[in-house]
Amino acid sequence: MNKIILIFNTVKYLTFRQWFYRLKYISIKRYKRKIDIKHNREYNQNFQYYDASKFLNIYSSKACFSSSKIKADNIIQNRFTFLNNLTYQFTGEIDWKKDPFEYRLWSFNLNYFDYLDDLLNAFFFTSDKRYLDKGYALIDEWIKKNLTVYDSDLWDPYVTSKRLINWVKFISFCSIHNNTKITNFYVKAISTQLSFLKSNIEYYLGANHLIMDAKGLIFGGCFLGDDKAIKQGLKILRKEFTEQVLTDGAHYERSPSYQVEVIEHYLEAALVLKKNGYKKIGEEILDKIELMFDYLYNIIMPNGEIPLLNDSTLDYPMNALNLLECGAILYKKKHYLNYCKGDFSGFTSKLFKEEKVDILKGISDDTNIDPKYRSNYASGYYVLKDNVDNNQLYFLFDCGDCGPDYNLGHAHADSLNVILTIGAKKILVDSGTYTYKKCSERDYFRSTMAHNTISIDGKSSSQVWAAFRTAKRAKTKVLKYEEDQDFILITAEHNGFCKTLGSEKILHKRTIIYFKEKCFIIVDNIYGEINKTHKFDYNLYLGEQVEIIDKEIVLENDNKISIKTNKSNQISEAEISEYFSLKKKVQRLIVTDYFNKNENILTVINLDRNKNKVEVTELKGNIQVYINDKKYNFMV
After folding, report:
1. Are 77 and 69 in contact (CB under 8 A)?
2. Which residue segments constitute the domains of the chain, with CATH numbers given?
3. Taking the alpha carbons of 612, 613, 614, 619 in that order, is the dihedral positive or negative?
4. Residue 243: enclosing H or E segment and its boundaries?
5. pLDDT in tens, 574-603
6. Do the beta carbons of residue 601 and residue 565 sit within 8 Å?
7. Closest among 597, 594, 449 to 535, alpha carbons compared
8. Per-residue pLDDT band at 52 (split at 50, 70, 90)
9. Which of 388, 380, 439 is nearest to 558 (CA)?
10. How far apart are alpha carbons 566 and 552 in whole angstroms?
11. Residue 375 binned pLDDT confidence (cut-offs 50, 70, 90)
């Protein structure tokens, strides 16, 4: 019965479109046995994407491509590494259905053909045509084994879109740069996949899947001269931009990684249109997504990393700074380059001609930005930025909902989560995303316990389950925003525990008070209809090593920044994951206690304990804060 209720609380939010196309897709997976082959012979012989004539002249050094050589050398040996450290070497022919790690995403990666880009980069670095030959050999092998037979994984629409795009990029570039003839063998394979994609758009999933499908239609349509495919893709992109992009430019899943992926798809779709006779439409798309670039820049941390909110990793689908480089060129916004270091990435240099990178010349290395105390996003993220002792401070407060109710596959139960960095120091970090595989580790990294917030009775604030499911979910609202010359105060609360605890109606309210350049006060209130004793766990994941000095938690090698709570706490070892399949050991501050009435937890993060004397006391539901003998009163 519990499983039935869990499923009901998950699917009741689905739209009619999701139900209709889900049933259609299930029937296709069950009954489809073969692929309808398309015998197209025509293609756009002037198709352009990568600029061959300018490619190697952007830099005097080709170092931006050198990192791909190791990967390419492994691919030559049929040795494939995906998700950072999951490596498998085929002996003899490749089994395209192989799943050596019982992890569907690994098999998907094998069939994406993203590694064709590594082979291209290795060729650019070495001029060794073995890398191009290997790319063709892999494509040939896939076509001969799989083009006529349906398999639900190999012909998954998202996988098909990625593979089609990668083949078009690789084959079209080689035809120009290496004088390789595009034979009907390849045209037929691309036509067949495009035809399949037209009839199998992932309306049942939406989100980045639907954007990827549209991008596949546009790439395939531009390569084959198929206007119907282009129109179909454009219709999806236009409609989904209105659906998926919030008024502040955030993607509706509230995941920085998926912000990056959706920008990438729109960007590449726009560029392929501009380069192949659809300049006006391409520019229309670029104009739309400027807002998404602005949001990405605003939410990125001063160390150049994205905050690992919801399902996010630092390298999926690419380094976010690569996109900001592109945005700097497209929109002439030099401040996008504030966090970029060194030369342009290989991704950027392959897309833009030499004359368009002049924007880099004369850019100062000074990355200081004007203090920006408040960013109130439609996505629900409040970002505070400031300069503290010549270091950039970044504080993020998650005051938003999990995402769109009908699409919470990448949501974490992280309501009222916080992140703090100062310069290169990561003070409070998000635990990230270790795996997409259905397992206990996936459950943990999505749970409330894995974030800088409070769980009650071991329950999460939202019911995340089965890898990509969310049943009962917290709703969050901002109660107060106040600012004066000394401080900023933000109060928000969520009702998740009213749902996940059953009969008890307990709310979690969190107030953040930032005394500019001095300290943060975090006040957590657990209150409501409390009829029995409960246990709470309050976690703060620490990105820097700490030690205990005078009952304060102090950053090692930095005798200034300290953390102090009004309750007994302990430091334990924990693990976070900044990249898929990789764990990193950190320390965790944890406060565990029992309560049977309203409970307050106070946390002080002093930015300079040698200079700032901070004391916080409770008084009849209010708090008094003394900073260097100056007194403040707050109702919380």
Report:
1. no
2. 36-216 (1.50.10.100), 245-367 (no CATH), 381-609 (2.70.98.70)
3. negative
4. helix 227-244
5. 999 999 999 999 999 999 999 999 999 999
6. yes
7. 594
8. low
9. 388
10. 11
11. low
